[in-house]
Amino acid sequence: MFRLHPRLEADTVEIAVWPLSRVLLMNDRTYPWLILVPQREDVRELHHLSPEDRTRLVHEMALAARLLEDATKADKINVAALGNQVPQLHVHVIARFHDDPAWPDPVWGVVRPEPYDQASLSHTIRMLRGNMTPPQTAG
C-alpha cells in the first residue's frame, strides 16, 4: 500500500493525482516548485520502477515542467531526483528565474523556505490547476 513519506507530507500541498504520481506543491513561495511522487510502495530509485512506470514518470515530469513553464514564464525549469533526505522516490520540478535568490546555483540551502500565506497558496493552486491538462496514457 502506497504511503507518502512524512517529510513530503509535512512540506507540501497536494494539487493533483495523475495516473502514476501524486503532484505536490512545495510549501515555499520563494520558488514555484512541484514534486512528483510515483504511487508505488517501497520505491527508492528510478531504476526500481517497471519500464512502463519509468516511461509514465518521464511523461508526467514533462507535463509538470510544461505546467510550471506556462504558469510562471520561468527562465529555466530544473528537474532533479535526489532522495538523500527523503528516501521515497520523488522528482523535483522547479521554476527558476535569473533574479531568484539561488540563481544560478541549486535552490537547496540558499535561503530558508518561506511558506505560502493562505491567500497566495490559494492563488498559486488555482493558477496551477487552471493550467493543468490531465495526463494521457503514455505510449
- Fraction of helical residues: 25-40%
Total number of domains: 1
Q: Remind me, CATH topology?
A: HIT family, subunit A
Bin the strand percentage: 15-25%
Morphology call = globular
Distance between the termini: 26 Å
CATH architectural grouping: 2-Layer Sandwich
**CA-based gyration radius:** 14 Å
The count of DSSP E runs of length 2 or more, i.e. the number of strands, is 5
Contiguous low-pLDDT stretches (5 residues minimum) are none
User: What is the typical, i.e. mean, pLDDT?
Assistant: 94
The major β-sheet equals: 5 strands, antiparallel
Secondary-structure class = alpha+beta
In CATH, the homologous superfamily goes by the name HIT-like
- Reading the helices and strands in chain order gives HEEEHEEH
Strand order of the largest sheet: 1-2-3-5-4
Structure in words:
This protein is an alpha+beta fold and 139 residues long. The protein has a single domain (6-131), classed as HIT family, subunit A (2-Layer Sandwich). The protein contains three helices and five strands. The protein has helices at residues 6-11, 51-72, 118-131; strands at 12-17, 21-26, 33-38, 76-80, 91-96. It has a five-stranded antiparallel β-sheet with strand order 1-2-3-5-4. The protein is globular and about 40 Å long. The model has no long low-confidence stretch (mean pLDDT 94).
